[in-house]
Amino acid sequence: MPKECCAVNCSNLCVRGSGLSFYTFPADLDRRNKWIAAVNRKNWYPTEHTVICSEHFIDGQKSNNQFAPNYTPTIFQRVDSPMKRKMEAQVADFRRRTASRKRRIEQTEITDQQKKKAKESRMQELAESSKRQEEARKLEEERRLKEIEEQQRLEEERKRCEEDERERLLREEERREAEQRKEIEDAKQKRLDEMNRLQQAEETRLEYDELLKKYDDLLLKYNQAVEELQ
């Protein structure tokens, strides 16, 4: 069953296509009491399902602005025409003040937006400047790191060259020492061979002298034997 407006002598129903808006009573106690007082029904209190239609609000809709005339319902059959005209004049005045306030707010918003854009532009410039400085710092740091790495590479290359040269000199020294040892050994062997040859020659000479002496002794004995036979 559709809900019916709670205003006295109002038969508007909350149905689709009615072109009206229906509002439940506010939860705020002070505002709720003002609505109840405006409905002006004796010994009556709304429930959570009670509604009032937009025809009872100036400008045809409620407002949540507590300073607006349509903050509470005010249009009822019991209200006479002068009062309605006064409320309409209040609405017109409220609209003018609201429009003026809106223009000031809009102008303030435009100024604030311009300030905000200028601030954002400045912040963007600062951010870009900071970004460029950071990029430059990183590039400089990378350059220094590359220089350090190159210096380390050159130092390591120098150490390797020095180590290779030391090893080459050491091998050369070992080769010379080996050649010297071989020369000494060869000289010793040659001297030993020479001494052996001299010793063998001396032994041969002695053996020859011994044989020659034996030959002389035999020849002497032979000559003596021949003489005795004669």
Description:
It is built from two helices and two strands. It is mainly α and 230 residues long. Among the domains are: 1-78, no CATH class; 80-161. A two-stranded antiparallel sheet has the order 1-2.
Helix-and-strand structural type: mainly alpha
**Main β sheet profile:** 2 strands, antiparallel
Shape: rod-shaped
Low-confidence stretches: none
Series of secondary-structure elements, N-terminal to C-terminal: EHEH
Helical content stands at: 55-70%
Secondary structure: number of strands: 2
Strands across the major sheet, in which order?
1-2
How do the helices and strands line up, and which of them pair or pack?
Layout: E1 22-24, H1 29-39, E2 51-53, H2 81-229
Antiparallel strand pairs: 1-2
How do you describe this structure in short?
With 230 residues, the protein is mainly α. The protein has helices spanning 29-39, 81-229; strands spanning 22-24, 51-53.
List keywords for this structure.
single chain; 230 residues; 2 helices; 2 strands
